[in-house]
Design brief:
This protein is an alpha/beta fold and 297 residues long. The protein is built from ten helices and nine strands. It has one domain.
Length: 297
C-alpha cells in the first residue's frame, strides 16, 4: 500500500514537487518489484542465482544468432514483462544466424556499401516482422505504412549510426549519468527527449519524442539476449543496435541475459552445487559455489 502510494505520487509529480526524490522512490519501487517477480517467476526454482539487474559485456560477434519472431512472441506469452525466464523447448535450435537476416543485410548494404535505404529491402524486412505480429493477433511492431514514416525511420537510423560512431556505444547506465550524450537519444534523467529529423528536401523536419521508461533499471534497457542449451548467445531484442555495433567493429557492448534454456540453467546450477569450474563463459564466470538462490534477496 505504501509503495503503491509512493508510485502514484511520483506519477503525478509536477514542477516544484521535489521530482528528484519522487523519481528515486519510483525507481526503488520498480527495482523491488522486479526483484521479487523474478524470484517468484523462476529464481526460486534454481540453485544458481538469476540476477535481474546484471549486465555483462560481450564482443558483438559473440551474439551469433537471433530468435525467430514467432518464437520470441510465443516465449514472451509465458513471462511477465521485463522478467527473466528459464525455458525448455527447441527455440535455441530454431534461432537463425543474425548476419543472414534480411534486417542485418539491409543495414549492412546501407552503412557498409552506401546503398540508398529504398533499395536495401529494409522496409520489407520490417514488414515481415510486422506480419508475424499481425498473424499472432498483435499490433505491428514497426508499421512503416507510408513514405513519411519510412523516411523518419531512415533518418533516425542514420543519426543513431553517426552518434554511436562518434560518441561510442553508451550503456543505459552511462546514458542516465551523462545527459544529452546518448546513442539511443535518451536524456540523462530518463525522461522524454525530442529530436528533429529532416525528412526530405522541401518537406521540412519532423520532431520525434522518445520515451525512455524512466523507472526501469538500466539493465532492462540494454540489448537483451537468451542463452541456448550449449551456451550460445542468441539475440532477443536490440537488433538495430547490435547490427550497428557489428558494422562499426566495436570491441564490446553491454547486454542483459533475459532468458536461459533449461539445460543451460542446469549447468549453472551444477557450478553452484558442486563447485565444478565454470570456465570463462560470461554467464558462468561470476557464479560462486555454495551460493544458493533460495530467497528474493
Amino acid at each position: 500500500m505504501v509503495l503503491s502510494a509512493v508510485t502514484t505520487a511520483a506519477n503525478r509529480a509536477i514542477d516544484g514537487s521535489t521530482p528528484t526524490v519522487l523519481e528515486r522512490c519510483r525507481r526503488f519501487t520498480t527495482r523491488q518489484r522486479l526483484r521479487y517477480r523474478t524470484w517468484r517467476h523462476c529464481g526460486r526454482e534454481y540453485a544458481a542465482p538469476i540476477d535481474p539487474f546484471r549486465v555483462c559485456r560481450l564482443v558483438p560477434g559473440a551474439i551469433t544468432h537471433v530468435l525467430t519472431e514467432g518464437d520470441r512472441l510465443a516465449l514472451a506469452n509465458g513471462r511477465p514483462g521485463w522478467i527473466q525466464s528459464v525455458d525448455d523447448g527447441d527455440w535455441d535450435r530454431e534461432a537463425v544466424r543474425f548476419t543472414e537476416t534480411p534486417l542485418y543485410e539491409a543495414l549492412r548494404a546501407h552503412f557498409a556499401d552506401g546503398t540508398p535505404w529504398e533499395e536495401t529491402g529494409y522496409a520489407e524486412a520490417l514488414e515481415r516482422i510486422d506480419r508475424v505480429h499481425r498473424e499472432a493477433g498483435r499490433d505491428p511492431r514497426y508499421d512503416l505504412s507510408n513514405d513519411t514514416d519510412r523516411n523518419v525511420r531512415y533518418a533516425y537510423l542514420d543519426e543513431l549510426y553517426d552518434r554511436i560512431a562518434t560518441e561510442g556505444y553508451q550503456s543505459a547506465a552511462a546514458v542516465r549519468a551523462d545527459e544529452g550524450s546518448s546513442a539511443g537519444f535518451r536524456t540523462g534523467d530518463g525522461t522524454d527527449t525530442e529530436i528533429e529529423i529532416e525528412i526530405g528536401t522541401g518537406t521540412g523536419t519532423r520532431t520525434i519524442t522518445r520515451t525512455a521508461d524512466a523507472p526501469l533499471p538500466p539493465a532492462k534497457r540494454e540489448i537483451s539476449v537468451a542463452v541456448g542449451r550449449d551456451g550460445r548467445f542468441i539475440l532477443e531484442s536490440g537488433r538495430h543496435r547490435l547490427a550497428i555495433a557489428r558494422l562499426l567493429g566495436l570491441e564490446e557492448i553491454p547486454v542483459h541475459v533475459l532468458r536461459r534454456h533449461e539445460r543451460w540453467q542446469a549447468r549453472r546450477d551444477r557450478v553452484v552445487l558442486t563447485g565444478v569450474d565454470g570456465g570463462d563463459h560470461p554467464d558462468l564466470a561470476d557464479l560462486t559455489p555454495g551460493r544458493l538462490s533460495l530467497e528474493a534477496d
